[in-house]
Amino acid sequence: MSKVKKEYVCALGLTIDLIGGKWKLMILWYLISEPKRFGELKKSIPGITQKILTEQLRELEERGIISREVFACVPPKVEYSMTESGTSLIPLINHLCTWTEAYAKENDIKLN
Predict the structure, then answer these.
(1) How many CB atoms are located within 10 Å of the residue 19 CB?
(2) CA separation, residue 110 to residues 10, 36, 43, 47, 105 (Å)
(3) What percentage of the chain's residues is helix, strand, coil (to nearest 5)?
(4) Structural domains in the chain?
(5) Element spanning 99, H or E
(6) Which DSSP symbol is given to 27?
(7) Strand partners, 81
(8) What are the two backbone dihedrals, phi and then psi, of residue 82, each rounded to the nearest 5 degrees?
(9) What φ, ψ does residue 29 adopt, rounded to 5°?
(10) Where does the pLDDT of residue 3 fall: very low under 50, low under 70, confident under 90, or very high at 90 and above?
(11) What is the pTM assigned to this prediction?
(12) What is the arrangement of strands in the sheet containing 77-82, beginning at the earlier edge strand?
């Protein structure tokens, strides 16, 4: 698991450490509307392995972007949701999606 450094040349370096990579933004996208269980996230994100999803969720939780709630029931139930800090990313994520859709349209790239 990667650790967040204490010093960066610019803010973008920290941003990449916090939410960069192939999976983190997709995980956050699926948590915007409501909390999700691990299995729901795994089904929503094609190609992600259980190991990688677990690692990415742990990193996002350690950094205070998402929270993990364990319910005392049988079978055990765990839900992931956005924290206040994570929720503040929603406008940025939505803007990135809008930009990407426009880019895809301009460049004849199909989005499902």
Answers:
(1) 19
(2) 33, 27, 22, 18, 8
(3) 50, 10, 35
(4) 23-106 (1.10.10.10)
(5) helix 90-106
(6) H
(7) 67
(8) -75, 140
(9) -55, -45
(10) low
(11) 0.87
(12) 36-37, 77-82, 66-71
Q: Which residue has the tokens 């994100």?
A: 45
Rounded to an integer, what distance in angstroms lies between the CA atom of residue 53 and that of residue 45?
9
Whole-angstrom distance, CA of residue 70 vs CA of residue 68:
7
Residue 45 near residue 26 (C-beta atoms within 8 A) = yes
Evaluate the omega torsion of the peptide bond into residue 91 and state whether it is cis, within 30 degrees of 0: no
Question: 17-64: per-residue pLDDT in tens?
Answer: 899 999 999 999 999 999 999 999 999 999 999 999 999 999 999 999
Tokens of 37: 């269980």
